[in-house]
Q: What sequence folds into this?
């Protein structure tokens, strides 16, 4: 009888130990996979940023503390991830680059409003914008050029090809309005571009302050503070998708694809459009982290080499 009890105890101990070891191994695998996914996403984000701001981001740097930075032409370093846990409001108020790149902007057509806190593009890292488009009102104004929007000229920032892309988009939209007159009332007269101001109720600068945002013709159902979600969704469904696609094609995101909807608003954000194009569908871990990016020209390959060198 004692032998039977001893055998049962040994078997039980073996099974418990085996289960504990199995659980430990499983946790290690999950942790390693999580680290790999995080590093992979970080590399993709950094590549998108370098591709989006080729004349302004010169390097990637990993500090002795393990923190990762983009290095601007001026020498300024901007942190990728501060490692703080934040809710959506905290990300809007005190973002890092990881927060800004986290939500993937959808390039597909939509016919209903996004979830309340799905706002890809509303999180903005202002040190980056100031380095690219101007640190002060006067500096931004010195970079503005006129772009014809309908029958009027509007100021837009010429840096990083923002004004050039707006010109191209407006050429397509003016042709659209001629061929399809029903789209004209959604376009013109535009509500404005450059306006150095803070977002209402916050201490955050509007993207209009940098001359990189365009508001088309206003409707009282366009903005989440002006209208109910039901009214906003009706407006969204009636909005010509060709307008959205013409601007997205030139690296503008649309406020209609935010839970906090802003349907008349378009904003020049090449980093988000690039991420949507190449990294909206995650590739298996066995593939290169930059898998899907095309074309892999010399410039893009140099960015990949910089990122791999610093984050190996």
A:
């Amino acid at each position: 009888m004692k032998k039977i009890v001893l055998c049962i105890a040994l078997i039980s101990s073996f099974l418990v130990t085996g289960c504990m070891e199995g659980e430990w191994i499983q946790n290690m695998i999950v942790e390693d996979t999580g680290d790999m996914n995080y590093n992979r996403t970080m590399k993709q984000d950094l590549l998108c940023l370098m591709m989006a701001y080729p004349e302004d981001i010169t390097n990637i740097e990993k500090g002795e503390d393990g923190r990762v930075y983009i290095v601007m032409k001026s020498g300024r370093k901007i942190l990728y991830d501060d490692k703080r846990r934040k809710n959506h409001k905290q990300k809007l108020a005190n973002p890092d680059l990881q927060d800004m790149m986290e939500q993937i902007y959808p390039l597909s057509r939509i016919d209903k409003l996004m979830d309340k806190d799905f706002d890809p593009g509303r999180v903005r890292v202002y040190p980056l914008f100031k380095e690219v488009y101007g640190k002060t009102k006067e500096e931004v104004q010195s970079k503005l050029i006129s772009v014809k929007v309908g029958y009027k000229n509007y100021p837009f920032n010429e840096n990083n090809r923002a004004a050039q892309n707006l010109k191209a988009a407006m050429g397509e939209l003016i042709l659209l309005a001629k061929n399809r007159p029903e789209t004209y009332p959604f376009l013109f007269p535009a509500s404005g571009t450059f306006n150095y101001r803070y977002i209402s109720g916050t201490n955050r600068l509007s993207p209009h302050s940098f001359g990189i945002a365009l508001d088309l013709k206003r409707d009282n159902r366009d903005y989440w503070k002006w209208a109910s979600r039901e009214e906003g969704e009706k407006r969204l469904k009636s909005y010509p998708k060709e307008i959205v696609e013409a601007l997205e094609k030139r690296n503008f995101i649309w406020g209609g694809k935010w839970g906090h909807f802003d349907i008349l608003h378009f904003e020049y954000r090449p980093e988000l459009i690039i991420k949507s194009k190449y990294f909206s569908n995650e590739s298996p871990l066995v593939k290169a982290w930059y898998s899907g990016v095309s074309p892999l020209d010399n410039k893009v390959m140099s960015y990949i080499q910089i990122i791999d060198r610093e984050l190996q």
